[in-house]
Amino acid sequence: MRILIVDDESGVRQMMADTVRRFDDSYEVEEAEEGEEALRMLDDSFDLVITDIRMPGMDGVELASRIRERFPDIIIFMLTGYAEFEYARAAIRANVSEYLLKPVSVQALREAIAKAADTVRGRKEAERISRLREMALLEKRVQDLLYELPLPYYDEWMFPEYDAVGVLSFVIEDAEEGGTIRFAVKNVLGDVLSGFGVPLVFVEGSHLTCVLFLKDGHASPEEIASRCADAVRATLRRTIRAGIGGVAKQLSEVSGLYWRSLKQLGIDRPAVPVAGDGTEQGTDGLLEPRGEMHHLIRQTIHILETEYDQDITLSGLAERLYLNPNYLSTLFKNETGTTFTQALLRIRMEKAKELLRTTKLKIYEVGSRVGYADSAHFSRVFKNHENMSPYEYREKYAQT
């Protein structure tokens, strides 16, 4: 916590400053002799001002009012004598957090500052959480742009000021540690890119993608990529290969830059099933899209409907589609109204019921054909979903 003590009596001021420093080594305490000097010293890094009410020139009342105008979050303590105590309370109740009666006891000062420190910690934690939420929302909106989702006009305010936006993608050579090394590289890239603008770095399956909001006079994408590679090599002893999407002036061009960067790395854009070509057969009635379905979700549903008998996981599918698993999960839920896990279960159960009705396959064979290697597990899942066992379902609905 950063504290400014303002008092024209140097002995009182210095003694209070020394006392406060002894309360906690982390307190940064500075001193000012009068109000004008205090205002010159103040900036928004200060958390607390302790000022005498009566000083030559600008008194404590005026100082408190001026502080409130410029720095509304700074906590203010007023030092006051007994004769002026009631006046001070009445005159500046709205501006001052604490009134300390002179001479101030060490205990009273300690308790007041401890209370202020709690307030400052709470405020900073709230600000930290708010920044994290804003960053999470910004990351989601940028991913929406990468994957060509429409951006609500009212969200455009959240993007940093920029003159151009650039996209780079990277793959790590010989990344046998899997996700661990990718997240280490992500941290290094974030540090390097912050020197060029406001960066967002995403880990997406086999690669990392960087979106950088740039100001005028920025370095070339090639130079930025080279700096990133040098930093990763020096810090992690790893080699990364860059795909340079380039820069653009408009956010609407980000998706094109993204796919260009992946193409340079030899990563092809996922094929998208086209309505009417037969590849989406069977989706009707199983998953209902909310409006026009995004091409990545149509691709996801196509995979679920054709590979339901395989060991399909969200993370594995996200890697195939070059997506972040959390993003795919959120996008899937928004587009279909159901979760990835629920959708896969629903498809498997529908296929299992079809096999039970129309074939004489044994129960374990039906389970195996819809992705369950363990017959007992299949039977439990089926009963939980259908309120009857596979055997009971066949007895009731089998086509003869």
UniProtKB/TrEMBL annotation:
Domain HTH araC/xylS-type: from-to ranges: 298-396
CDD domains xrefs: REC_YesN-like
Residues in Response regulatory domain copies: 2-117
Domain of life: Bacteria
Key words, A-Z: DNA-binding, Phosphoprotein, Transcription, Transcription regulation
Molecular-function annotations in GO: DNA-binding transcription factor activity; sequence-specific DNA binding
Gene3D superfamilies tied to this protein: 3.40.50.2300, Homeodomain-like (1.10.10.60)
Sites of 4-aspartylphosphate modification: D52
BP GO terms, sorted: phosphorelay signal transduction system
PANTHER family, per database record: ARAC-FAMILY TRANSCRIPTIONAL REGULATOR, HTH-TYPE TRANSCRIPTIONAL REGULATOR EXSA
Name the UniProt record assigns to this protein: Response regulator containing CheY-like receiver domain and AraC-type DNA-binding domain
Phylogenetic placement of the source organism: Bacteria, Bacillati, Bacillota, Bacilli, Bacillales
